[in-house]
Amino acid sequence: MRDLPIPIRDFILSLTDDMLSPAYLLVTEDGLLIESGGDLESYGLNELAKNLDVSDHIPFLVGVLPLGPNSLFLPHVQTKPGVFANVYLFTREEGTWILLLDTTLETAGRQSMQQKLYDSRLQVKDLEREGDALYKANAFLEQLVSERTAELAQTVRQLRKQIAELEGARKTPPEK
Amino acid sequence: MIQKKVCMLGTFSVGKTSLVRRFVESIYSDKYHTTVGVKIDKKVVQLDDSEIMLILWDIEGTESEHELRSSYLRGASGYLLVADGTRQDTLYKALALQTRVEETVGAVPFLLLMNKADLSNDWSISEREATALRDKGWEVVQTSAKTGLGVEDSFHSLAKKLLEAK
Questions:
Q1: In this structure, what DSSP letter does residue B61 have?
Q2: Which of A80-84, A168-172, B60-64, B105-109 is the least confident region?
Q3: Cα–Cα nearest to A66, from A53, A85, A82, A49
Q4: Please, which residues have CB within 8 angstroms of residue B52's CB and are 6 or more apart in sequence?
Q5: pTM above the 0.80 mark?
Q6: The pLDDT value given to residue A1
Q7: What is the spatial distance between Cα A17 and Cα A6, in angstroms, rounded to a whole number?
Q8: Complex ipTM value
Q9: How far apart are CA B123 and CA B118, in angstroms?
Q10: Is any Cβ of chain B less than 8 angstroms from the Cβ of A107?
Q11: Are B130 and B117 in contact (CB under 8 A)?
Q12: Region at A173 (left for phi over 0; alpha for psi -120 to 50; beta for the rest)
């Protein structure tokens, strides 16, 4: 933001504050809390005392710490029912910073779109399954029809043969 | 108490969230709600002479293993791979996911759950396929989040494996 004039930077900061409810934790490599601040309460993170092992109180940090020199981004983490945050972790000299930015609205929007997409995929799957069942039923019916047709043709042939025999017998004059 | 992170993995609509809800809250709903991001729950599992807290990461289902965010897997001690027994392709996607997960977190304990066992008429995964996986040493379990079949046992079995692997 080096090239941006101060009013713009202030506006962006204010916008971030209003829309993203920033909150942070600073922890040691072992996960002990050094300091915390911002709108932690909106994420359901209350009563965090200094030197507390954050993994014991914040489930999404279990297994994640120590972070080492890397950074980590965990998008759309539900921190309490109905509240989602993008969680950023990065290490500096003073410890590991954990930044939470609210993403509840964005998550809800994505959820709605994804729901429609997956619902339609499942419908397509159901239709394919029904189509397969119909195809199999149709093939079975066709086989039945062809078997019955063959049987009928055979019966007709036998009947014709019998009729011909009967007619032949009727035309032949009885021997005297 | 020992805490272990467990990831629920599988493609969309295989029943990962329903399995967690069944296990944690003993609740089941027929309505499908897709998960975005990750929902985290926890439950203490009592084993013979110890207890363990499972931190369950219910991760959004992806269509392919490449879409899975590896950051979600960081620190996972184990995972439950979930397939929908009525959709054969979900098994193949679970197999691809397993390879991806093992590349990311290593050979940690896992189980393969073939969910929706209550829909036996629509079942499309053959016993031969399940047997082939068991022959590879995999623990493959038929589950139903709807009836509860195999759910408790699966989480307990994984918890036991996690303690053994400790």
A1: P
A2: A168-172
A3: A53
A4: B1, B2, B3, B4, B44, B45, B159, B162, B163
A5: yes
A6: 63
A7: 16
A8: 0.91
A9: 9
A10: yes
A11: no
A12: beta
Positive or negative, the Cα torsion across B58, B17, A23, A17? positive
What proportion of chain B, given as a percentage, has pLDDT over 90? 87
Upstream peptide bond of A173 is cis (omega within 30 degrees of 0): no
Nearest chain A residue to B57, by CA: A60
Which tokens in the block code for residue B16?
Answer: 């990962």
Q: Identify which of A146, A156, A74, A66 has the alpha carbon closest to the alpha carbon of residue A107.
A: A74
Tokens representing residue A124 in the block? 């397509």
Q: Pairing relation of β-strands A33-38 and A23-27?
A: antiparallel
For A174, the token pair is 């009885």
Q: How far is CA B166 from the centre of its chain?
A: 20
Query: Nearest residue on chain A to B37, judged by CA atoms?
Result: A76
Residue linked to tokens 């998960």: B35
**What is the number of H-type helices and E-type strands within chain A?**
3, 5
Nearest to B87 among A62, A65, A125 (CB): A125
Cβ neighbour number for residue A108 with a 10 Å cutoff: 12
Cβ-based neighbours of A70, under 8 Å, separated by 6 or more? A91
Helices marked H in chain A: 6-20, 54-57, 104-171
Contact B42 A59 (CB under 8 A): yes
For tokens 């967690």, what's the residue? B20
Token pair, residue A28, equals: 């040691």
Under an 8 A CB cutoff, do B55 and A62 touch?
A: yes
